[in-house]
Write a structure and sequence with these properties.
- The chain is α/β, with parallel strands linked by helices.
- The protein is built from nine helices and nine strands.
- The protein has helices spanning 2-8, 25-39, 56-65, 77-85, 129-140, 157-167, 178-185, 196-204, 218-225, and strands spanning 12-22, 43-52, 71-74, 93-95, 116-120, 145-148, 170-171, 190-193, 209-211.
- It starts with a helix and ends in an 11-residue tail after the last helix.
Length: 236
């Protein structure tokens, strides 16, 4: 009841999903809350999302709930197309890559390189161990070192430990502040990452990235919108 009273007191309810929305119970719960707010006459909006839905049921639901929104901001044209195909009016959809991107670049980009490469795989990432070992050996022969970097330390803990045990990839530092994390990423010559926000915060620090798709098309649509010159590597 406390949450319902809070919604009733609002002039605008803005839903910012954690990166993407998809065919799951969490999004179903949020759709229900948004529908309740709309039934109460509250204006609703959605920002900073990729629309990763596949089932006809969720497409029907998103068409009804998102179709009644004041405005929707998504990361790229793939999400926009899914919304339009689900019955959402194109005129209420706007494209913006991600709220973590900033025009203010990290000023501490280090000119003297440390021959350091930051790397991240996630539990959803598949890779060939033999080929990856050859990749690591090639760069180590040229004096490079590897550190594991991530904006999701708990979610990536098992992968980090695997890379440390099998490939001697060093433990990187963890941060709770995104500015500190961007400054940390600025010391690397290159970031290889399946975490979208590690890629984004590396770009904020003007560190080049090799992006790996972490979930469906989320990274692909964002970097396509930004005209990033490298293709996103498939995660499987």
């Amino acid at each position: 009841f406390k949450r319902l009273k809070c919604i009733q007191s609002a002039d605008l309810l803005v839903y910012s999903g954690a990166g993407e929305v998809g065919d799951n119970n969490v999004f179903l719960r949020q759709l229900l809350e948004l529908a309740v707010a709309q039934a109460l006459g509250i204006k609703t909006a959605a920002v900073n999302q990729s629309i990763v839905i596949h089932s006809s049921l969720f497409k029907e639901l998103i068409g009804k709930v998102y179709g009644n929104m004041y405005q929707i901001v998504v990361r790229g044209s793939i999400s926009e197309s899914i919304l339009i195909q689900s019955g959402v009016d194109k005129n209420i959809i706007k494209l913006a890559p991600d709220s973590a991107l900033t025009k203010e670049k990290i000023k501490q980009r280090q000119n003297s390189r440390k021959k350091l490469i930051g790397i991240n795989f996630t539990p959803k990432t598949s890779f060939n161990h033999k080929q990856f070992k050859a990749f690591i050996n090639r760069f180590e022969s040229k004096g490079y070192k590897f550190e594991y970097v991530t904006n999701e330390p708990l979610g990536d803990l098992k992968v980090r430990n695997l890379l440390f045990r099998n490939f001697s990839v060093g433990f990187g530092k963890y941060f709770t502040d995104y500015n500190d994390y961007s400054k940390y990423l600025s010391q690397f010559d290159l970031i290889i990452s399946a975490r979208l926000h590690t890629c984004i915060l590396a770009l904020n620090s003007e560190t080049p990235i090799i992006p790996i798709e972490g979930n469906s098309f989320k990274t692909k649509e964002l970097l396509t919108y930004l005209s990033y010159p490298l293709n996103v590597i498939s995660h499987s």
